[in-house]
Amino acid sequence: MHIEPLLVSEMLVFAKVVELRSFAAAARQLNLTTSAVSRSVGRLEAHWGVRLLHRTTRSLSLTELGAEVYAGCTQLAATARDVHATAGHYSDTPRGTVRLTAPTVFGEIWLTAQLPALRRRWPEVQLHIALSDQPEDLIAQGLDLAIRIARPEQLPPHMVARALRPVRYIAVATPQYLQGLGGALTHPAQLPERGAQCIALGYGTFQNQLQWQPRDGTGGPLISTSLPAPLTVASSLGITTLALQHQGIGLVADFCAHQLLEQGQLVQLLPDWELTGGYAQRTAYALYMPSRHVPLKVRALIDHLVDAGK
Question: What is the DSSP letter of 203?
């Protein structure tokens, strides 16, 4: 049976429209205009002389025949993806565009710092990065990869996760602020005793109720402290900015304060103690959808980030 080459393309577009339940979303993922996607589905319906979709301004649903056609089109799309992935899997050189999303501050500070080395090694890999603190739907947004900071139990079960690096939360302040508290601290109980104030993230578990445990592995008892938090900022970057102005003790992700600590502009308080509880260590993960063949360009990026996180 002869199938026109153009018809195969229209079937793949139709499958994407139904998968995303939106002409506009399919257009974004396929790098087409919405009108082009609409015309493509229209040509498919005209070719067969049938209606595949019920369309209104607010909804999109399959006709009875459309549902049967969609089942066949999804098989065609899956076969096309497998062929494409197989070819990319055995390619010698990573190439192509990787679309990913990452948390805003983590992306601005840590992720972007790792990219020049990646570009030097794999110059044919292009990256489109969306920075957002909201979880993104990889399929709906046409993304290859998502980076998220989470605890293992918070990971979505339907996705593959690779650990990139640990993310610890630490207490930092300027040397001047620490001196105003009377100098170096050796025990968390000294924080409220000396009148310390904190700058907290102020959302979820990131509040001003702090739990500490010794880092020497002895498993000593948890020490709980509660500090006044006249300033809360939902950004580690914003907290470090305020801490640099001697506004209090910043409770921040370690990657955010790393350079400032090395430069001596900030110092870490109680380095022999670990924040636990709401500020317990997380991990930065690379998340992607399961596939028999992960594209080489995606594997190259993930492997590079894993090495950078060691």
Answer: B
